[in-house]
Amino acid sequence: MARAYSKTTLVDAVGRLRPGMRVLLPPGCGEPVALVGEICRQSERLSDLTLLGGIHLGDYPFARPEHSALRTATWHMSPQLEDARARGRVEFVPMRYFDVVSEFAQGGAWAPDCVLVHTAPPDARGYLSLGVAVGVTLPAARRAPLVIAQVNPAMPRALGNAFLHASQIDLRVDVDEPLLQYPPAVVGETERRIAAHVAALVPDGATVQVGVGAIPQAVLEALSGHRDLALHSLLVDASVSLVESGVVTCAAKTLHRGRMDIAEAMGTRRLFDFLHENPRVNMESSAFVHDPETVARLDGFVAINSGLEVDLTGQVTAESLGPRQVAGIGGQFDFVLGASRSRRGAAIIALPSTGRKGAVSRIVPRLGAGANVTSPRFLADWVVTEHGAARLRGQGARGRTEALIAVADPRFREGLARDATS
User: CA torsion sign, 296 to 300 to 304 to 310?
Assistant: First the structure.
């Protein structure tokens, strides 16, 4: 049944929301800032309305004490949510990205009552592109009881499986404002050294997945001498340089040759302009992009992800410091699993060898008490630090220990060896 697609104001659109509802927000650069701001302004009447989401680039206004009537449920924890969590207003949902698609949609455990979308203006046939944030938002919106669109000419009209038709939207609010931006991370010498080791493990023709942050930024820069690469899942500003220089051609892909399959884009206006009506970019649901079976069909898939600690068995936590949740599972497990099934695939965990300004080793005898395992030891493949690359796949316990100690900071190697034999 077609929906109304009624043009309205921010006040009236948010006026359709009721206390206790669950409302899904697009992540990253796709956050509809104007709609979120209006929800905050009406927060007193929206008691226990729960905002659902992942990574946000704004200042989390809905988590401020003055909006304590609102709740948050997230699959990606942030330090900016800590105060609200201490007040009992935030719930962390430990879920990998591939499962978020089904559990945060109609029929799932966290089914939203309303989905907010942030779109480009409709084309002549009435189709609106979700632009930079498609992965979780699009499948949820297609099945939600209520869909409210913030329609913004600043949103790039991304192509592929990125569209809602006007008949799938209940309310439209026109807002012309810049998108939230994710500027390139500052890259230091440690990140460059890590990136050089990672780049040496990436063959020409590979399909590469990276996340956000300084190390992924450095890795993309270090791939500048490669040939016929493809990118998967996420685009950032550095991705544009690789396409423009001819490094990324997608010519060797075994699935969807010639195009990139992308769920989210996080960057600046440079990236948004690149994405606009670009036929080389196929925006897709995370039900496809994060599916390990999709990844397994891509020969030479290289998953490059980060970690906070790696223990001497190969277990990785990328989300918690001891029992304190600081991030989320994200897509790491999806891509590590998929890479293990890809012909000539590789899964790389890249991290600095130390933390706290060199005071502690991030290669540890065992994960900290209460730490959550993001990638299990039975999927461990490569661990890379600024001191080199440790191959773990196929190694026994002793071999893994020796390989990991070899890429630890030299100041901690003796202690790690002693702990390993105690």
Answer: positive
Phi, psi angles (nearest 5°) of residue 338: -60, -40
Q: First-to-last CA distance in the chain?
A: 67
> Is residue 1 scored above 70 in pLDDT?
no
* Contact present, 301 and 200 (Cβ < 8 Å): no
Q: Which domains does the chain have, with CATH numbers?
A: 6-174 (3.40.1080.10), 189-421 (3.40.1080.20)
Task: Yes or no: say if 116 and 27 are a contact pair by the CB < 8 Å rule.
Answer: no
Query: Side by side, which strands form the sheet with 316-317?
Result: 316-317, 309-311, 363-364
**CA–CA separation, 250 vs 205, rounded Å?**
8
Query: What tokens appear for 357 in the block?
Result: 């300004």
Interhelix angle 410-421/397-406, rounded to 10 degrees, is 160
Reported as a single tens digit per residue, the pLDDT across 106-124 is 999 999 999 999 999 999 9
Summarised one tens digit per residue, pLDDT across range 37-84 is 999 999 999 999 999 999 999 889 999 999 999 999 999 999 999 999
Question: What pLDDT, in 10s, does the model give residues 294-321?
Answer: 999 999 999 999 999 999 999 999 999 9
E-strand ranges in 318-386 read 320-321, 324-325, 346-350, 354-355, 360-361, 363-364, 382-385
Inform me whether the pLDDT recorded for 148 exceeds 90: yes
Q: How far apart are CA 417 and CA 422, in angstroms?
A: 9
Return the SS3 of 207. Answer: strand
Beta carbons within 8 Å of 330's beta carbon, 6+ residues apart: 75, 76, 96, 97, 211, 318, 319
Concatenated DSSP letters of 247-309: SB--TT-SSSTTSEEEEEE-S-HHHHHHHTT-TTEEE--HHHHT-HHHHHTSTTEEEEEE-SE
Please state, in angstroms and as integers, the Cα–Cα distance from residue 99 to each residue in 235, 277, 304, 346, 352, following that order.
21, 29, 20, 22, 29
d(CA 314, CA 330): 19
pLDDT tens digits, one per residue of 83-112: 999 999 999 999 999 999 999 999 999 999
Phi-psi region of 126 (alpha: psi -120 to 50; beta: other; left: phi over 0): left
